[in-house]
Amino acid sequence: MNRPESEKTALGGRRGWLLEILLFLVLCIAVHIVVTITFKGTPTSDGQGLSLNDYDYKLRIVKSFWFGEIQTIYKPEAQIAAIENAYGIKVTEAMPLADTPTLLLLLLPFSIVAEFNFAIAYTLWMSISLVILFLALEKTQASFADKKRIFPFYLIVVCVFTFSFSMIHAIRMGQSSLLGAGLLILLALETIDAKDSRRLLRRCPVYMMIVLLSVKIHYLIPALGILLFYGYFHEAVVSTLIVASTIVLLGFWKGFALLSDWINQVGFFSGTTALPSYYVSAFSLHTLITLRSAFSQFTNSPIVGSISYFIIVTGGSAILFVSLWKSLHSSSCPQPATSITPQRSVTILFGLLLLFLPYLGGYEDLLLLVPYVFLFATAGDRASIPSLDKKLVLAVFCTGLVLNYNLFPPPQIILLFWLMKALALACLFLLLS
Questions:
Q1: Quick one: 66 exposed, middle or buried, by C-beta within 10 A (0-12, 13-18, 19+)?
Q2: Which residue of 96, 275, 292, 350 pairs with 358 in a disulfide if CB–CB is 3.0 to 4.6 A?
Q3: Residues in Cβ contact with 299 at an 8 Å cutoff, skipping those fewer than 6 apart
Q4: Per-residue model confidence as pLDDT tens digits over 145-160
Q5: Which pTM value belongs to this model?
Q6: 164 close to 403: Cβ distance less than 8 angstroms
């Protein structure tokens, strides 16, 4: 997987840093003109509501929290007060936040910038997220042992994601899925390279990435899974302790009611709790591709949400047990003792989350990029991509349909797209070894 040091440009070397700075500046200009100015939050024509993207909403609330206007970011009355103070109009609906309290730390620097210029804060957030994602993708192709053989297929996959509706929508909404995907890819590459090179992980960058990824539970779980599946138990435990300590320290600093409010909010994302009237418009099941949304066209029974979490917990526990068992007995068992390799375990974990979490925005399907990165970054260990493999074609085709699901005219058969997502993940699982 390693390339000569002179050939490495991403995240290293003077030439690499110059390219990164240039990329950031170009993205800042493009994002500010195309995204920030065009899609920033504005009052509706009747003056009784507000058209906000997700980042506008969250940053307004977090900024109000840090500047003492509200005492929590999770209670609906506090959120409504923050939005009304910012825009001077009456609002009646709020948006539940599943983001962990580390969101406060992630958006703190942007809140400070927003005190002077909200548009620039948005531009910086989106430009930094895109730079991290694009550099992660560049670093992936820089790791290929056989670039001529692998790169054309990798380029097709990157284009399918880059020019998809999910990507464009994530940029317009200021979603953290871009940052999450980029950081998970960088963590995957660091873990793969460390294991192949038989070196220690660079712990400081790893811990920093884990803390940033802890902003959402469905980013944190796969991040810790990557470490555990590759046998980095110490780093996984320390990362968990760092995240837990960060949240507890926030509780000591800002009050533990913040933590209890967050736990209460998470319950609304279980799919088993009746939503208050002020949250109803926050969940649009017809725009999502999960088991819960697929069956919402047939039944609204909360049992679907319960089944989803049962599958996630039992499936996640099983794959963790198998992976740990294999790691502990790797020296005494022959290599073919189990077909569950670390990269396959990661793919299963992503599949459990992306298929069964009851409420998961379509923009989060961008996380499908990570299993693809495992496929291409470890391609040197196998001969599975010497030609256009039928499973790879099917996976890319299904992924493209899933990422552009919201472009299809209604009524969409969500269950059909859910099966396509499952088929794409199954093909990636079979391609990996």
A1: middle
A2: 292
A3: none
A4: 777 788 889 999 999 9
A5: 0.91
A6: yes
